[in-house]
Amino acid sequence: MSACKHIAGSLMGFLQDNSVTAMTMQALEQFSLDVKQCEEFAESSPVPGIEEGILKLAFADLRQLLHLFLTKDWSSYLADFGNAQAKYVRVKPQVAASIMEKLSNSEKKKGKVFSSLSKNDRDKKKLQEDVLKKLRGLMNGQMATGMQS
Predict the structure, then answer these.
(1) pLDDT at 4 (0 to 100)
(2) Which of 26, 38, 45, 87 lies 20 to 30 Å from 144 when distance is taken between CA atoms?
(3) Farthest-apart Cα atoms in the chain, separation
């Protein structure tokens, strides 16, 4: 279990690493495939005596985060935030905001190369900015709530 937690923590740390300033959706898709390999290994019962499914739980935070970004299910995340039964209960707004900023930085770099953005690219950029603004709002609300406790 500690090995799976270590791997999951290292992978999550990579996504949040401040030295990584830009990230593409294609990179997240590939990253998701890598996490899937880890989950499949964890499901293969590599340790006798460990209850089935327990090792895979080490990757649950990553899976929820990646699923949120790959499906772009922001309406569910934002609507259900703070609900203990939320679909993305394990996704922290700070982590989501960090990744959204990296995706946005990647789009900015792409925009400099291809100076004329299509309507689809402009819509995607607007959505990213909107979600990032709302994530920052959640972070500020969470911090204010944490300070009152």
Answers:
(1) 94
(2) 87
(3) 58
Q: Is 30 exposed, middle or buried (0-12, 13-18, 19+ CB in 10 A)?
A: exposed
Residues of the chain with confidence (pLDDT) below 70: 109-119, 121, 142-149
Closest CA to 127 of 102, 94, 98, 100: 100
- pLDDT for 116 equals 54
**Strand stretches in 16-144, DSSP E:** none
Cβ neighbour number for residue 139 with a 10 Å cutoff: 15
CA dihedral of 46, 49, 52, 55, whole degrees rounded to 10: -60
Q: At 102, which amino acid appears?
A: K
From CA 147, how far away is CA 143, in angstroms rounded? 6
Instruction: Decide: 81 and 138 in contact? Cβ < 8 Å.
Output: yes
Write down the residue that tokens 């819509």 correspond to: 123
Q: Are 81 and 75 in contact (CB under 8 A)?
A: no
Domain ranges of the chain: 2-148
Count other C-beta atoms under 10 Å from residue 19's C-beta: 5
Give how far the C-alpha of residue 14 lies from the chain's centroid of Cα atoms, to the nearest Å: 11
